[in-house]
């Protein structure tokens, strides 16, 4: 079995810088997200160019490439950041979403991961039900198949008074 690199599946990791948590707000959450130690942030994005040239985030609309935007804010606990590929001033392709809850950054799962997890959970439940049903099934060459439930055996042993 091949080992899985954490960069291949970032859904299981989180990141936090506790120094920022008390002061997070919609105005500085992108600065928080762009911290060097954040594994989710791409240093080659347009946000870095805008920051180096000391421009406003409004200039991102005129650039082409990967960028991060604040998609939603529910102060003081929830912020959603979107990584997107800008094709033109009017066209963007969402790449991934990140949510920040109480200062902790997580990558939001994509639809395929959610559906895969739900299907796996359902199949596990169905398999467990079949395994339990098979534990009650009995066979004898002279009798054939029948169901043998443990509670029937216990009822037969208890005699009425």
UniProtKB/TrEMBL annotation:
The keyword Nucleus applies. One of its GO terms (cellular component) is nucleoplasm. InterPro entries: Mediator_Med6, Mediator_Med6_sf. Gene3D superfamilies: Mediator complex, subunit Med6 (3.10.450.580). It is found in: Nucleus. Keywords: Activator, Nucleus, Transcription, Transcription regulation. It comes from the Eukaryota. Pfam families: Med6. One of its GO terms (molecular function) is transcription coregulator activity. One of its GO terms (biological process) is regulation of transcription by RNA polymerase II. Coiled coil: none annotated. The keyword Transcription regulation applies. Belongs to the Mediator complex subunit 6 family. Component of the Mediator complex, a coactivator involved in the regulated transcription of nearly all RNA polymerase II-dependent genes. Mediator functions as a bridge to convey information from gene-specific regulatory proteins to the basal RNA polymerase II transcription machinery. Mediator is recruited to promoters by direct interactions with regulatory proteins and serves as a scaffold for the assembly of a functional preinitiation complex with RNA polymerase II and the general transcription factors. Component of the Mediator complex. This is Mediator of RNA polymerase II transcription subunit 6. The gene is MED6.
